[in-house]
Amino acid sequence: MNFIKQLNADAQENSAAASEEVVEAAAAITTPPVEEEIAVAEAPAVVASATPVAVATAHDDFDWTIDKRNVSTYNNDERAKYDKVYEDTFKSIQDGEMIIGTVVGLTKTDAVINIGFKSDGLISLNEFRDNPVSISDEVEVLVVEKEDRNGNLHLSRRQARISRAWERIVDANKTGEIVTGTVTSKTKGGLIVDIFGMETFLPGSQIDVKPVTDYDQFVGKTMEFKVVKVNETIKNAVVSHKALIESDIEAQRAEIISKLEKGQVLEGTIKNITDFGAFMDLGGLDGLLYITDISWGRINHPSEVLQLDQKLNVVVLDFDDDKRRISLGLKQLTPHPWDVLGEAIQEGSVIKGKVVNIEDYGAFLEIQPGVEGLVHVSEISWANTPINAKEFFSLGTDHEAKIVTLDKDNRKMSLSIKQLTNDPWDTIEDKFGVDSKHTGVVKNITPYGVFVELEAGIGGMIHISDLSWLKRINHPSEFTKVGENIDIIILAIDKDGRKLQLGHKQLEEDPWIALAETFPIGSLHEGTVIKKDDKGAVVSLPYGLEGYAPGRHLGKEDGGTIQADETNQFMVIEFDPNDKRILLSHARIWEQAAAEEREVARKEARTEVENTKKAVKTIQNKVEKTTLGDLGVLADLKKKLEGNEGK
Question: What is the pLDDT of residue 638?
Fold first, then answer.
């Protein structure tokens, strides 16, 4: 292009030159090399603005066809020379190349960029919104296409920025360089950060070392980041602000650990509270204050005495350089309570404590923080009946107790509640003598008896056999219930064993002696079967008695068997007042009646035989006097007699 301009300028300055030179110049223009034809075609504005050259136009008077033989032409060497001069006026560029261009023009929508190529490129002003440009400004652009389908040079400043930004991001990832970016928006799971003009992802977990729930507070902020991950395939990068904080913390941690010593007192801030303790920030280094090292006394949860962001002085109990673990203590800053136990706490003194723990064997009372004593179940009551500690005590309740033993060296203390009162068993006969009658409360029921409390610390057991004279009891729960009142009589006292033998049925005379006359053997009574099995049945009788009928005695006359809940007649076949037993039979009733009927029939038959014999004898006495015709009557009587004897 510059070559053509130079030719035009020479033509203006040498207008009086010989026509042969003009013709040669014109010939050079009208017959350019192929490359020059393309260049001229692509830049018509430049050609049009040049000084008129001898080029054929519609109004041109010069006849270019005259004496063509006199028009000189370039030889091959000259043509190659001028081609090189022409080509050297342009830059050699490739698609995807980054290049510096100059703004040579501005329109309402685009910026015209000259990159030294044979044509200028256009870039939308939208790509310069972050940094508006003016004419003659230099900008870095990317050659998208040297020639698109419309023959235009396609440039992009945005893609140039992205490409350059990606290169810097990749380098930052490799070198660990700290970069600065601006949080532009919130997205799912994190934030979008502009780094060097390229969008990167900041996960929510990488914002801070502390959990972050409000992402909006970071939008618009400019912060420092570390590129922690890049994906070359999709050109995606992940950044972290947390990594920078951790780096600072790690440096602080290393410095603190290098100066740590067991027993050293540090100031820390409560940063998290859990069920098992509290984590403290020691100024870039975390330590654990375990729940058992918070207080000399018992606590159920650290939050009872600690609060978040609370500042405390703690002592270093132990630390591990490799695992970076530090164990802290708070209670160790004060003396152990057992070491400064007051003089008022000694054996025999009465104290007041709060229940802090309950076990099957007893309860622990806290006398003061860090000082506890055990009330064993055997020291709760003077009563010899078993006591459930978990039913007697409740957590947090206060109780008075007497110190029985005190071992300061081993930090143990045994307490007693029952020793606050006199032992009632020392004078048991005065109030609960043998044969004395009382009313007590049923405290416990076992398969073999009922435990009754007469007063605090005094009680005994009613054996199942001593509950009722008449009623057959399979389990004491059929007779009474826990919590009910029951009348008793003292049968015996075991002072050494601290036991009372109690009775209930003995409050009345034994009715079996009097009932022997009511239920003699062979007597009949109406009864109801209340229970039946394969062996027999239990029958309810009058006066509250119960009898037993073996299975073979339940048969009926019609061949059936008496069933449960059926009422019928029963015969007493055995009555034992010592074993409190009555045996019954229903079958015996009808069997005995049948036997009696058979006996009556036999008696009647014998009577008839005797009468017949007498009649025969009478007839025999008269035989001698009878006629031959009477012999037939005699024979008939003899047959009749023989028939009766057969019966």
Answer: 66
Global pTM reads 0.41
Burial 26-35 (b: 16+ CB within 10 A, else e): bbbbeebeee
Residue 4 dihedral angles phi and psi, to the nearest 5°: -65, -40
Mean pLDDT to the nearest integer, 81-97: 71
Q: d(Cα 121, Cα 111) in Å, to the nearest integer?
A: 8
Give the Cα separation of 231 and 581 in Å (integer): 98
Q: Tell me the three state secondary structure of residue 513.
A: helix
Going from the C-alpha of 317 to that of each of 293, 321, 329, 332, the distances in angstroms are 10, 14, 6, 9
**Using 50, 70 and 90 to split pLDDT, how confident is the model at 643?**
low
pLDDT for position 623: 64
How far apart, in Å, are the Cα atoms of 283 and each of 37, 242, 271?
77, 16, 11
Question: 37-46, 121-130, 346-355 — which is least confidently predicted?
Answer: 37-46
pLDDT tens, residue by residue, 610-623? 877 777 777 777 76
Integer CA distances (angstroms), 128 to 153, 159, 195, in order: 18, 12, 17
C-alpha distance from residue 459 to each of 375, 441, 445, 501, 541 (Å):
21, 9, 13, 9, 35
